[in-house]
Amino acid sequence: MSTAHTRPKQPELVRRALLDCAARLAAEQGLAGLTVQAVADAAGVTKGGFFHHFPSKQALIDAVFADLVAHFDGEVEALMAADPEPFGRFTRAYVEATFRERLLGRAAPSTIMSLSMLADPELRLVWSRWFEGRMAQHAETDASPVLEIARLAADGLCLNGLLSLDSTVIADIEALRAELAALTRPR
Amino acid sequence: MSTAHTRPKQPELVRRALLDCAARLAAEQGLAGLTVQAVADAAGVTKGGFFHHFPSKQALIDAVFADLVAHFDGEVEALMAADPEPFGRFTRAYVEATFRERLLGRAAPSTIMSLSMLADPELRLVWSRWFEGRMAQHAETDASPVLEIARLAADGLCLNGLLSLDSTVIADIEALRAELAALTRPR
DNA sequence: GAAAGGATACCTACCGGTTGGTATCTTTAT
DNA sequence: ATAAAGATACCAACCGGTAGGTATCCTTTC
Q: Which residues bind DNA (chains A, B) (predicted)?
């Protein structure tokens, strides 16, 4: 607020701050409780300033979600690049990336975010399209039924990460990680 | 509106209609977009009438969620009662019940469950407690790691049910069902 | 058995508060 | 100087919830 005048103006930085704060707030109190005013306050900007960067609240949410998908996609890409085994390569990366999203057994804020965003049909489409595109790309190496189970289990893990905020549902995460990784390897 | 006067008053029926309409609306446009007015309209009742049946919006949501959990629990119980094999009995029922929730058209109740859980920490607790209770009850038959994977895959399937509204992510559902069922049986 | 009378079910109308969004002015950087 | 960046003040719409009235049902009483 007060620093906004002293510090040199860096619109890119403010925009990033808005995105990050929105992600954090949405993770904390759900996407339903996300308000423009709260995001603006958290980023040290007034509501008017907010609307200078984003034409609408939905535009912000879309941007945050696109950010999250891009980050996840990057992680998957990196994991795949370092994987010599062709069979199940994408699935293995998908599963491992999901595991990395969690911190100390709990779901990372980004996970909570992406899950709450599935409430929005339009954002669901964004995710669906990403997934379908990647799947079509790796159809030859990742079409096996057992790999589908592994991917679904990763999704389930993502969901369970939310519940583990309240209590521990999964006993041994490392064992599960190894078990799932083994599931993606050729027999 | 006009029929409300001629038709015999059946509060139980109206209450049920409110619950069902709330579940349907929540499935269609997310729990965030759920409004008391919309629920009342869909059930053929005014907003004032709504508040006669439920003291608050949260009370309605809680009731809907409890309803869904109870229904799912009943399905699991029935499936377990008809299963002679002790090993993985609960997991098998859990997986099969998830598949059955998925089959009824576009708006699966399990979809709403996950959405509600994400939105409200208190509802997450309700689900956690149910799951933990059942797991403790069947710890001897369902503690195997492979069974955990099967349950997680079921959760993931539930999540994917959301996405299937927009596009088909899962190729062969029946094959997946068989594969997952086989996973829960002793080797 | 039917009128009385209380309880239940439901509606109309409204209120306080919040939210997304806008119009307008001021400050900063180049 | 001028265009971007941001502040201030404000609005229209909506949402959950309340107040108070009316119709309908179910007993009770004679």
A: 35-54
Q: Between A176 and B112, where is the model more confident?
A: A176
Q: Cα–Cα distance between A30 and A131 in angstroms, integer?
A: 24
Nearest to A50 by CA among A36, A65, A62, A34: A36
Cα nearest neighbour of A112 on chain B:
B118
Where on strand D do bases come within 7 A of a protein Cβ? 4-10, 14-20, 23-25
Q: Identify which has the larger pLDDT, A80 or B167.
A: A80
Q: Are the C-beta atoms of B74 and B62 separated by less than 8 Å?
A: no
**Of B121, B129, B153, which has the smallest distance from its Cβ to A149's Cβ?**
B153
* A106-107/A102-103 β-pairing: antiparallel
Q: In this predicted model, what pLDDT tens digit does every residue of A99-129 receive, in sequence order?
A: 998 875 666 777 777 777 777 778 888 998 9
Q: A96 and A11, same structural domain?
A: no
Q: How far is CA A89 from CA A82, A178, B50, B103, in A?
A: 10, 15, 53, 31
Long-range residue pairs from B172-180, CB within 8 A, at least 24 positions apart, any chain: B172/A145, B173/B99, B173/B102, B175/A145, B176/A145, B176/A148, B176/A149, B177/B96, B177/B99, B179/A145, B179/A146, B179/A149, B180/A149, B180/B95, B180/B150, B180/B153, B180/B154
One DSSP character per residue, A120-133 reads: SHHHHHHHHHHHHH
Count of domains observed in chain B: 2
CA distance B6 to A34: 44
Whether the CB of B132 is below 8 Å from some CB of chain A: the reply is yes
Cβ pairs A/B, distance under 8 A: 130
DSSP A83: -
Instruction: List pLDDT tens digits, range B104-120.
Output: 544 466 677 666 777 78
More confident residue, B4 or A18: A18
Does residue A70 sit in the same domain as residue A92? Answer: yes
Q: Are A74 and A4 part of one and the same domain?
A: no
* Mean of pLDDT over chain B: 85
